[in-house]
Every structure is written in structure tokens, then in C-alpha cells.
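Example 5.3 — ABC transporter substrate-binding protein
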Amino acid sequence: MGRHSRILAAIGLSLALVTGPALAQQSGGTLVQVTVPEPPNLASYLSTSGPIGQVAAKVYEGLIDVGDGLTLKPSLAESWTVSEDGKTITFKLREGVTWHDGKPFTSADVQYGIMNVLREVHPRGGATLKVIEAVETPDDYTAVFKLSEPAPYLMISLNGYESPIVAKHLFEGTDPRENPTANAPVGTGPFKFVEWQKGQFVRLDKNENYWQEGKPYLDRVVVRFIADASTRTAAIENGEVHFGAFGAIPNIDVPRLGEMPEIDVTTKGYEYVAPIMQLQFNVTKAPFDNPLVRKAIATALDRQFVIDNIWFGFGKPATGPIHSAFEPSGIFTTDGVESFEVDDRIAKANAMLDEAGLPRDADGIRFRMIHDLTPYGEEWRRFGEYVKQVLAELGIAAELRYEDVATWLKRVYTDYDYEMSSNWLYGLPDPVLGVHRQYHSNQIRPGTVFVNGTKWSSPETDALMDAASVENDPKKRAELYHDFQRQIVDASPIIFMHELEFTTVHSANLKNAVMGPLGVYHSFADAYFEQ
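Solution (predicted C-alpha cells):
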């Protein structure tokens, strides 16, 4: 028996794919998911760190669910109506739903969770939900959202990944940043938290009282944390692991695994997130307070080389703060947006640094710096090495620093104790949800992760974002975002590298694990093993 099999055996879990009734009932079994890296906590109401959502989405739910084509589906809300002026949304809540501790779910949980938790501490909630002035609760199963202005982007943000509803009785009277549910979540979802053995696994068991009758089909989900990339590949190849998303299975191994009949590979399930890989600067620290220095580095880096040689062909060069997935809506543009895809990139970057007044010393060094790497796996280490080599050609001596997730997040978003960091963030289905948080002055929020960590601020782009948030005319809204893209790229507080294309690798007999645009950020309520 291998080491990782012994881990599961030690907690009495069977690796049998189906342990219960016949296939007709699609019931039973343990789904083993691998997530990289291990999350710092399981508080999806507090952090949008990717690994957190991969676990917490099985435990927490939202008012709505998201279906194919980014359609809205009922979840904790059975139905809803929107007033003619767009400023009142009335939700009819589902009756008979209980929290995992047995307490009933009511409108009081929605009111408290939205107003006192998500609006206050969620990284994106501070921007997305700020239009909600009040949540009225005329009865236990009605929640009425009163908005300060129409917000057409709001409804889709109320899903369980983006806006998890939490239990009032567990949060009232506490600081949500210190609530014990951060490491032992209590939700209404199809799986209940059982235990977390740090460095090894999180165990989630079937919620026998789940409101969707007959679901979930699985007995449990075990989320394992395996640091070594080759070990993760071996684990899915030999059946010890059944599911890995967001690059948990290294891209270099994906083509070979995809040819095996017992393994399936898909790039579906990421439509909701629209991720962009980037380098971000602390623009308050010299010399990165000079846009010419930032643009010189942006010019020197070869995006296609990075895609082909570090991400093994999975990706597309990024052109600015808005993902090309927004192109059908007219929001995305390259018209008038400065491009860093140039010939003689190193020569041009060096000339820009000369112009910035940063001469080389006797050793050929212009300045020294630290590049803080995203602590999400081997690709990021390799990317850091590539950036270091390119910077050396510019006379910039870069030291690479790779820390655990919690330390890195605190360094970048609480202490701002960094100069340049690699990162990747979601664009999400609307720029208000995923883009504004990185650039708006009001999103410089120390202690809140994945918001404006560059400390870059501009009244001009703030005004463009504010206007686009309430503009209902699609053409006028697109024009606002076109100006926004041009101004952001011209200032370059962030270097846009590429639009990430992630793969999900799973056992071929695992069905319905990727359900719609949320992918692994969905609940697994419908997942089952075919035998």
C-alpha cells in the first residue's frame, strides 16, 4: 500500500469507486480531489484564494446557481422578482433547508450574511454588494434587497462561490475575520465538513439532510494536498486521485494522460472566472513608482514564449485588464491600447530604462529588487526564473522569494511589503465583479486579499469605473471600458502576461463533476461514479 493510500485507510475511507447500491441509483463512493496548494483556511466569505473555493463550494451555497451560458438558476432562493426601476429585488427563499449543525436556514441568515459579513470582509463583496443599502426580512422565507441604484451585474454574483451565505447564529457578535468557521465551515451544501488534517487532507461527508432530495450521490469528498507535482500525476494515473483542476495536474503531463482511456481531460468549467496571469508592482516603491520602468519590464517579457515553454501551450497573450472573453459584449478592445509585443524587445526596454534615469553601475547593475512568486506550484517557479533571466538582460538583479500562501497574501495585501509579485486574478462575468477591485482607489483595503494590492490610484479611471457600473446602455458602457483599458495599460501598474487556460483532469468514470461555468467551484451534488 502506497503512502497516500495509507492516509485514506487511516481515516477509514474506502477507495472503492462505488460502494453502495447499483448504478441505477448512482450512489456511493469517495471522490478524491487534489488541490494545490493547501488553502490557508476554508473561509470563502473572507478570501477568494482559489484553493479555498475548491473546497468550500461543496459546503456553502448562494441564493442562486450559475448554469451554462452564465444563466441564473435557483439555489437557496426558489425564485426572485426585480422591480421596474431595478432597485428592489425580492427573493422567495427555499423552505426546509437546514444548516449542517441542524439549525434552520431563514431570511435572517441572508440579511446578516450579506450586510454584516460579505459586504464587510469579502474581497469583492465590498465593491459588488455596496449598492445593497438594506436587506428587509418581512418573513422567514422572504428577503428583499433595497439597492441604491440599478446593478445589472449583481444577480450573477449571488452564487455560492462568489457570495456564500453564512449562518447568523454562528457569526453574530463575532469578528468575521476571526470566526472559528474559517477552519471548520458550516453551510447548507451537499457535503459537511468533518476534519482537516493539515498537510494531508480535508474530509467532507454526505449531508444526509440536503434539501435536494436524493443528492448528493457520493458518500464523501476527500480533498488531498500533495506538494510534489510528479506525485500528483502518479496519483491520478493509478486511481488514488480522481479529480484535479486549475493545473493541479501539471500541464506537461496532460497530453499523455488525456490519451489514456481511464482518464478524461477538459478545459470546460472556467468560463465564469476569465483568469489573467500577471505581474503586479507596488507603485509606491521606487523605481516602480515610475511608469516608464514598469513599461520597460512589460516590453522585455515575451508572452508567447511563456505560454509555449512554461504553460505548455495553454493560454493566450493578454492585452490589458479585461479578458478577451468579454469581446462578444463589446467591452473588450485592443483599439488604441498600447501593445508590448514588439521586435527588439530587450533593446527597447533598455532604452526606456536609460530614459528613466537608471544607469548601470560598474557591474552592469541598474538596481536590485525582490520578485515575490505566486506560491501556487512549479509553473510559477519556472516563470520566476524566466523573469529573473530577462531582468538580468536589463541590468536588474532580481532575487526570487517563494513563501507559503498565508505569508505571501499578508505581504502583498496587508503589509504591502513587496516590490513586484506574480499573480493571477479572475475577471469574472462582469468587470464590476472581478476587474474594478484591482484598480479602484476605494479597493486599497489593507488586510483584504485580491483587491488593489498595487496601491495605484487614478481619479480618471475611478470615474470611468463608477460610470460603467451604472450605465445600462451597452454601447456607452463599452466605450467607458475601452477608455479604461487604454489608461490602465498606459500606466501599467500591472503587466498583463496571458489569459490562463486551465485543464481539469479526472477519472473517466467520474460523471457530472464539471457542471457548468463554475467547474470545481460547483458543489459536486450531481457527481457520481459510473461502474
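Remark. Confidence is low (pLDDT under 50) at residues 1-25.
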